[in-house]
Amino acid sequence: MKREHVIKPVLDHHYPTIQYGKGVYLYDEQGKAYIDGCSGAVTAGLGHGVQEIIDAMMEQANKVSFVYRSQFTSEPAEQLAEKLSDLAPGNDYWTFFVNSGSEATETAMKIAIQHWQEKGRPGKNKVISRRMSYHGITLGALSMSGHVLRRRRFIPLLEDFPVVMPPYCYRCPLGKTVGNCQVACADDLATAIKRIGAEHIAAFIAEPIIGAAGGAIVPPEGYYKKIKAICEQYDILFIADEVMTGIARTGAMFGMQHDEVEPDLMALGKGMSAGYTPMAATLVKDHVMEPILKGTKSIMSGHTYSANPQSAAISLAVLTYIDKHQLVSAAANKGRYLLNALHLLADGIKIIGDVRGKGLLLAIEFVADRTNKQPFAPGLGVTSRIIENAFQKGLLVYPAAGAIDGEGDAIIIAPPLIISEEEMNQLVRILAESIREVMAELTPSTLE
Ligand code: PMP
């Protein structure tokens, strides 16, 4: 075999070479078509090869691609920050540009800590997160993440941040039933704050809808209102990790808008540039910036490529495209159609335990036994088998396995927001075949 130089996710796995992409399809060098059922990593929200974005890219490249943020600002960066604030709840956010979702959450953490330092409360420096959560792969972001599999090897290097229970209604951590629970899981945050002491806590971070660490887990109604009230009561900043949910994905511009809650800070990434360039951001409310403006007058963080005009111009074009093609409402409507199709699928396939999500951020959780929700043994690798089978058939879906403290099987279905009804039908058809084939491979004893 020819020597390889790119370090791949799985070193002994063969990855086809991509040739080009158009709309919801990707084509490899053999000419095989793949329907992008998860927008890569829930990123390529506009689909591939969109001419308007390519034009914007060229136009900016013809002016200037890079300037260093300590020397210049640029029109695209200023316009993008203004547009994000106009779109965000409350319209009073500043933007700190970064290059990945991990940097966006980690920067949010740092700004929250700096906020309290400037207010003369340096002891407030811990961040509470939830047991099922993923906020990124760098050590700071991983410290805030509950994702057992991704943390495991680095535990000695991570901050020992507290975690509270997740709003996971399919397997309620309190054994309650939806609609009859008074959203009791949110009270765990108040309990944790009292135990640790609010004087030690800077912020609470949560994904509006849990993504990779469980699969499109939508909290019960009223959850975030209660969470925000608890944060306010104890003087704790609320960080919404909108890296996966933000920018139209869930049928609202920001996931938190479903709950009518205004986070103090937001982390954005993925869909913000729809995969056309690495781009991410931390949005910070006026009142969080205020003591920093009066004090140090500088955020103690930043990266070489932060706020580069090339990426800003691309993101700006993405937001313009979303507006022009009304992709927020498209995500809501198409999401309802696809969710319904997945529910119909579940009727006939007994390893489907739960179908859930909002807008075009949907997921299926697989179980060995539907009646008692018994998960499959991790060694069976059910999630990866379904993903691999679908891949062979030309369908891409995203893993969300390991939700239950490292166990459990789920996949995310999150196609580009421009997907047609016919393409959604094709996606569901292939997915059904793959799940059925993997189900047939599993021995009957695993299923009874
Ligand atoms: N937060 C959430 C909610 C995410 O889904 C991800 C990526 N899956 C991240 C943070 C990290 O983003 P990145 O991979 O761009 O660093």
UniProtKB/TrEMBL annotation:
Domain of life: Bacteria
Full protein name: Adenosylmethionine-8-amino-7-oxononanoate aminotransferase
Keyword Cell inner membrane included in the entry's annotation: no
Any Pfam family: Aminotran_3
The EC number(s) this enzyme carries: 2.6.1.62
GO MF, one annotated term: adenosylmethionine-8-amino-7-oxononanoate transaminase activity
Record gene name: bioA
Annotated InterPro entries: Aminotrans_3 (IPR005814), Aminotrans_3_PPA_site (IPR049704), PyrdxlP-dep_Trfase (IPR015424), PyrdxlP-dep_Trfase_major (IPR015421), PyrdxlP-dep_Trfase_small (IPR015422)
